[in-house]
Amino acid sequence: MIKIEDVLVVGGLLFAIGLYVALSRRNAVGILMGVELMLNSVNLNLIGFAKLTEAPRPIDGQVFAIFVITVAAAEAAVALALAVSVYRYRQSIDVDKLDLLKW
Amino acid sequence: MTGIDDTAVVIAFWVMAVVTIGSALMVATVHDLIHAVLFLILSFVGIAGLYITLSADFVAMVQILIYAGAISVLMLFSILLTPRSARDNAGVSYSAPIASVAILVAVVLIYAGLSTDWAYASNGFTSTAREIGNALLDPYALPFEVASVLLVVAMVGAIVLVRPTHEAGGTPLGEGEQF
Protein backbone atom coordinates (compact mmCIF):
# COMPACT_ATOMS: atom_id res chain seq x y z
CA MET A 1 0.00 0.00 0.00
CA ILE A 2 1.26 3.47 -0.88
CA LYS A 3 0.87 5.93 1.95
CA ILE A 4 1.86 9.57 2.04
CA GLU A 5 5.09 8.64 3.88
CA ASP A 6 6.33 6.67 0.86
CA VAL A 7 5.85 9.70 -1.39
CA LEU A 8 7.59 11.92 1.17
CA VAL A 9 10.60 9.57 1.36
CA VAL A 10 11.00 9.60 -2.44
CA GLY A 11 10.56 13.38 -2.48
CA GLY A 12 13.09 13.88 0.32
CA LEU A 13 15.72 11.74 -1.40
CA LEU A 14 15.16 13.57 -4.68
CA PHE A 15 15.46 16.96 -2.94
CA ALA A 16 18.75 15.93 -1.31
CA ILE A 17 20.19 14.77 -4.66
CA GLY A 18 19.09 18.04 -6.26
CA LEU A 19 20.69 19.99 -3.43
CA TYR A 20 23.97 18.10 -3.90
CA VAL A 21 23.93 18.75 -7.66
CA ALA A 22 23.10 22.44 -7.22
CA LEU A 23 25.85 23.01 -4.65
CA SER A 24 28.61 20.91 -6.20
CA ARG A 25 28.48 21.83 -9.89
CA ARG A 26 30.68 24.58 -11.25
CA ASN A 27 28.90 24.92 -14.57
CA ALA A 28 25.91 27.28 -14.31
CA VAL A 29 23.74 24.92 -16.38
CA GLY A 30 24.62 22.11 -13.98
CA ILE A 31 23.48 24.24 -11.04
CA LEU A 32 20.20 24.87 -12.83
CA MET A 33 19.76 21.12 -13.26
CA GLY A 34 19.99 20.67 -9.50
CA VAL A 35 17.43 23.43 -8.94
CA GLU A 36 15.02 21.74 -11.35
CA LEU A 37 15.42 18.44 -9.49
CA MET A 38 14.56 20.17 -6.20
CA LEU A 39 11.47 21.83 -7.74
CA ASN A 40 10.36 18.45 -9.06
CA SER A 41 10.66 16.83 -5.65
CA VAL A 42 8.48 19.57 -4.18
CA ASN A 43 5.92 19.00 -6.93
CA LEU A 44 5.94 15.28 -6.16
CA ASN A 45 5.13 16.03 -2.52
CA LEU A 46 2.29 18.37 -3.55
CA ILE A 47 0.76 15.72 -5.82
CA GLY A 48 1.14 13.12 -3.06
CA PHE A 49 -0.62 15.34 -0.55
CA ALA A 50 -3.42 15.99 -3.05
CA LYS A 51 -4.00 12.27 -3.43
CA LEU A 52 -3.28 10.81 -0.02
CA THR A 53 -4.33 13.28 2.68
CA GLU A 54 -7.65 14.79 3.66
CA ALA A 55 -8.42 18.18 2.17
CA PRO A 56 -11.54 20.25 1.60
CA ARG A 57 -10.64 20.55 -2.09
CA PRO A 58 -8.07 17.87 -3.00
CA ILE A 59 -7.39 19.22 -6.51
CA ASP A 60 -5.58 22.23 -4.97
CA GLY A 61 -2.33 20.27 -4.71
CA GLN A 62 -2.31 19.60 -8.43
CA VAL A 63 -3.11 23.25 -9.21
CA PHE A 64 -0.18 24.33 -7.01
CA ALA A 65 2.05 21.90 -8.89
CA ILE A 66 1.01 23.48 -12.19
CA PHE A 67 1.87 26.94 -10.85
CA VAL A 68 5.27 25.66 -9.69
CA ILE A 69 5.91 24.22 -13.17
CA THR A 70 4.98 27.59 -14.72
CA VAL A 71 7.37 29.52 -12.50
CA ALA A 72 10.10 26.92 -13.05
CA ALA A 73 9.75 27.31 -16.81
CA ALA A 74 10.08 31.10 -16.56
CA GLU A 75 13.05 30.74 -14.21
CA ALA A 76 14.81 28.27 -16.51
CA ALA A 77 14.34 30.52 -19.55
CA VAL A 78 15.78 33.59 -17.81
CA ALA A 79 18.61 31.67 -16.12
CA LEU A 80 19.74 30.00 -19.33
CA ALA A 81 19.56 33.34 -21.16
CA LEU A 82 21.77 34.78 -18.41
CA ALA A 83 24.22 31.90 -18.83
CA VAL A 84 24.49 32.47 -22.58
CA SER A 85 24.80 36.23 -22.02
CA VAL A 86 27.56 35.80 -19.42
CA TYR A 87 29.37 33.36 -21.71
CA ARG A 88 29.41 35.98 -24.45
CA TYR A 89 31.40 38.37 -22.26
CA ARG A 90 33.56 35.97 -20.21
CA GLN A 91 33.92 32.90 -22.51
CA SER A 92 33.02 30.78 -19.50
CA ILE A 93 30.05 29.96 -17.29
CA ASP A 94 32.19 28.46 -14.54
CA VAL A 95 30.67 30.05 -11.44
CA ASP A 96 33.99 29.88 -9.58
CA LYS A 97 35.46 32.31 -12.12
CA LEU A 98 32.51 34.73 -12.10
CA ASP A 99 33.81 36.83 -9.21
CA LEU A 100 33.31 40.31 -10.65
CA LEU A 101 31.03 41.29 -7.75
CA LYS A 102 33.40 39.91 -5.13
CA TRP A 103 35.15 42.54 -3.01
CA MET B 1 -9.13 3.71 3.00
CA THR B 2 -5.78 5.19 3.95
CA GLY B 3 -3.69 4.70 0.86
CA ILE B 4 -3.45 3.14 -2.58
CA ASP B 5 -4.15 -0.60 -2.36
CA ASP B 6 -4.05 -1.72 -5.99
CA THR B 7 -1.04 -4.04 -6.33
CA ALA B 8 -0.22 -3.05 -9.91
CA VAL B 9 -0.22 0.64 -8.98
CA VAL B 10 2.02 -0.03 -5.98
CA ILE B 11 4.53 -1.95 -8.13
CA ALA B 12 4.45 0.82 -10.75
CA PHE B 13 5.03 3.43 -8.04
CA TRP B 14 8.15 1.74 -6.70
CA VAL B 15 9.53 0.98 -10.17
CA MET B 16 9.09 4.64 -11.11
CA ALA B 17 10.61 5.72 -7.80
CA VAL B 18 13.71 3.59 -8.44
CA VAL B 19 14.02 4.94 -12.01
CA THR B 20 13.66 8.54 -10.78
CA ILE B 21 16.11 8.28 -7.88
CA GLY B 22 18.59 6.22 -9.89
CA SER B 23 18.73 8.62 -12.81
CA ALA B 24 18.93 11.57 -10.40
CA LEU B 25 21.97 9.89 -8.82
CA MET B 26 23.43 9.47 -12.30
CA VAL B 27 22.90 13.21 -12.86
CA ALA B 28 24.95 13.83 -9.74
CA THR B 29 27.79 11.44 -10.65
CA VAL B 30 28.12 11.26 -14.44
CA HIS B 31 31.03 13.22 -15.87
CA ASP B 32 29.76 14.66 -19.15
CA LEU B 33 27.19 17.44 -18.79
CA ILE B 34 25.29 16.28 -21.92
CA HIS B 35 24.88 12.83 -20.38
CA ALA B 36 23.71 14.51 -17.19
CA VAL B 37 20.95 16.29 -19.12
CA LEU B 38 19.89 12.99 -20.73
CA PHE B 39 19.63 11.33 -17.30
CA LEU B 40 17.73 14.40 -16.09
CA ILE B 41 15.17 13.80 -18.87
CA LEU B 42 14.83 10.19 -17.71
CA SER B 43 14.31 11.43 -14.17
CA PHE B 44 11.59 13.85 -15.33
CA VAL B 45 9.81 11.04 -17.18
CA GLY B 46 10.02 8.88 -14.05
CA ILE B 47 8.44 11.67 -12.02
CA ALA B 48 5.65 11.88 -14.61
CA GLY B 49 5.09 8.16 -14.05
CA LEU B 50 4.89 8.78 -10.31
CA TYR B 51 2.27 11.46 -10.98
CA ILE B 52 0.20 8.97 -12.96
CA THR B 53 0.30 6.44 -10.11
CA LEU B 54 -0.90 9.25 -7.82
CA SER B 55 -3.82 9.84 -10.26
CA ALA B 56 -2.55 13.20 -11.54
CA ASP B 57 -2.72 12.43 -15.25
CA PHE B 58 -3.00 16.04 -16.46
CA VAL B 59 0.00 17.19 -14.41
CA ALA B 60 1.96 14.19 -15.72
CA MET B 61 1.33 15.27 -19.31
CA VAL B 62 2.27 18.87 -18.44
CA GLN B 63 5.44 17.52 -16.80
CA ILE B 64 6.44 15.60 -19.93
CA LEU B 65 5.63 18.53 -22.24
CA ILE B 66 7.36 21.26 -20.24
CA TYR B 67 10.18 19.52 -18.36
CA ALA B 68 11.13 16.59 -20.58
CA GLY B 69 10.32 18.61 -23.70
CA ALA B 70 10.99 22.30 -23.34
CA ILE B 71 13.33 22.80 -20.39
CA SER B 72 15.63 19.90 -21.31
CA VAL B 73 15.98 21.17 -24.88
CA LEU B 74 16.69 24.64 -23.49
CA MET B 75 19.44 23.16 -21.29
CA LEU B 76 20.96 21.23 -24.20
CA PHE B 77 20.97 24.42 -26.29
CA SER B 78 22.67 26.34 -23.48
CA ILE B 79 25.36 23.68 -23.13
CA LEU B 80 25.95 23.65 -26.87
CA LEU B 81 26.01 27.47 -27.04
CA THR B 82 28.74 27.62 -24.38
CA PRO B 83 31.32 25.31 -25.97
CA ARG B 84 34.49 26.60 -24.33
CA SER B 85 33.33 26.25 -20.74
CA ALA B 86 34.11 23.14 -18.75
CA ARG B 87 31.59 20.37 -19.33
CA ASP B 88 32.71 17.88 -16.75
CA ASN B 89 32.13 17.92 -13.02
CA ALA B 90 35.60 16.62 -12.31
CA GLY B 91 37.50 18.37 -9.58
CA VAL B 92 34.42 19.31 -7.62
CA SER B 93 35.61 21.22 -4.59
CA TYR B 94 34.03 20.56 -1.19
CA SER B 95 32.35 17.42 -2.51
CA ALA B 96 32.37 15.61 0.85
CA PRO B 97 30.95 18.51 2.94
CA ILE B 98 28.24 19.14 0.34
CA ALA B 99 27.34 15.45 0.31
CA SER B 100 27.09 15.38 4.09
CA VAL B 101 24.88 18.49 4.06
CA ALA B 102 22.64 16.84 1.46
CA ILE B 103 22.42 13.62 3.49
CA LEU B 104 21.60 15.66 6.61
CA VAL B 105 18.80 17.47 4.73
CA ALA B 106 17.45 14.13 3.48
CA VAL B 107 17.47 12.67 6.99
CA VAL B 108 15.67 15.70 8.43
CA LEU B 109 13.05 15.76 5.65
CA ILE B 110 12.36 12.01 5.85
CA TYR B 111 12.23 12.08 9.66
CA ALA B 112 9.76 14.98 9.57
CA GLY B 113 7.62 13.12 7.03
CA LEU B 114 7.63 9.84 8.96
CA SER B 115 7.07 11.27 12.43
CA THR B 116 4.09 13.49 11.56
CA ASP B 117 0.58 12.18 12.17
CA TRP B 118 -1.00 12.76 8.75
CA ALA B 119 -4.74 12.80 8.06
CA TYR B 120 -4.74 9.81 5.74
CA ALA B 121 -7.16 9.60 2.86
CA SER B 122 -7.30 8.26 -0.67
CA ASN B 123 -9.00 10.88 -2.78
CA GLY B 124 -10.52 9.65 -5.99
CA PHE B 125 -10.26 12.05 -8.91
CA THR B 126 -12.67 11.39 -11.73
CA SER B 127 -11.41 13.87 -14.32
CA THR B 128 -8.44 15.92 -13.17
CA ALA B 129 -8.27 18.08 -16.30
CA ARG B 130 -11.85 19.28 -15.78
CA GLU B 131 -11.33 19.84 -12.04
CA ILE B 132 -8.06 21.71 -12.60
CA GLY B 133 -9.71 23.86 -15.25
CA ASN B 134 -12.55 24.73 -12.92
CA ALA B 135 -10.11 25.50 -10.09
CA LEU B 136 -7.94 27.70 -12.34
CA LEU B 137 -10.90 29.75 -13.52
CA ASP B 138 -12.80 30.08 -10.25
CA PRO B 139 -10.71 30.22 -7.02
CA TYR B 140 -7.35 30.70 -8.73
CA ALA B 141 -8.35 33.13 -11.48
CA LEU B 142 -6.06 35.92 -10.25
CA PRO B 143 -2.90 33.74 -9.89
CA PHE B 144 -3.70 32.27 -13.29
CA GLU B 145 -3.68 35.73 -14.90
CA VAL B 146 -0.54 36.73 -12.97
CA ALA B 147 1.16 33.59 -14.29
CA SER B 148 0.50 34.71 -17.86
CA VAL B 149 2.07 38.11 -17.09
CA LEU B 150 5.04 36.33 -15.52
CA LEU B 151 5.54 34.20 -18.63
CA VAL B 152 5.44 37.26 -20.90
CA VAL B 153 7.96 39.08 -18.68
CA ALA B 154 10.25 36.03 -18.64
CA MET B 155 10.04 35.68 -22.41
CA VAL B 156 10.81 39.36 -23.03
CA GLY B 157 13.57 39.25 -20.42
CA ALA B 158 15.21 36.25 -22.03
CA ILE B 159 15.08 37.90 -25.46
CA VAL B 160 16.60 41.13 -24.10
CA LEU B 161 19.35 39.24 -22.26
CA VAL B 162 20.61 37.27 -25.25
CA ARG B 163 20.09 40.07 -27.77
CA PRO B 164 23.42 41.29 -29.12
CA THR B 165 24.33 44.87 -28.22
CA HIS B 166 26.17 47.42 -30.32
CA GLU B 167 28.70 48.07 -27.55
CA ALA B 168 29.76 44.42 -27.62
CA GLY B 169 30.60 44.71 -31.30
CA GLY B 170 27.54 42.77 -32.34
CA THR B 171 24.99 43.59 -34.95
CA PRO B 172 21.26 44.16 -34.62
CA LEU B 173 18.93 41.23 -34.89
CA GLY B 174 18.61 39.57 -38.25
CA GLU B 175 22.13 40.18 -39.56
CA GLY B 176 23.73 36.89 -38.65
CA GLU B 177 25.11 37.37 -35.17
CA GLN B 178 28.04 35.07 -34.41
CA PHE B 179 27.65 33.06 -31.26
Number of helices of chain A: 3
What's the CATH first level of the largest domain in chain B? Mainly Alpha
User: Which series of helices and strands of chain A comes N to C?
Assistant: HHH
Q: How many separate structural domains of chain A? A: 1
Examine the secondary-structure arrangement and name the CATH architecture of the largest domain in chain B.
Answer: Up-down Bundle
Ends distance of chain A: 55 Å
Return Rg of chain A in Å: 17 Å
Structural class of chain A: mainly alpha
Descriptive account of the structure:
The complex is a heterodimer of chains A (103) and B (179). In chain A, 75% of the residues lie in helices and 0% in strands. In chain A, helix 1 (4-24) packs antiparallel against helix 2 and helix 2 (28-52) runs antiparallel to helix 3 (60-90). Chain A contains three helices and no strands. Chain A is mostly helical and 103 residues long. By secondary structure, chain B is an all-alpha fold. Chain B has two domains: 1-85, NADH-ubiquinone/plastoquinone oxidoreductase chain 6, subunit NuoJ (Four Helix Bundle (Hemerythrin (Met), subunit A)); 128-179, no CATH class. Helix content of chain B is 68%, strand content 0%. In chain B, helix 1 (7-29) packs antiparallel against helix 2 and helix 2 (33-53) runs antiparallel to helix 3. Residues 170-179 of chain B have low confidence and may be disordered.
Task: Tag the structure with descriptive keywords.
heterodimer; A: 103 residues; mainly alpha; Helix Hairpins; 3 helices; 75% helix; B: 179 residues; Four Helix Bundle (Hemerythrin (Met), subunit A); 2 domains; 6 helices; 68% helix; disordered C terminus
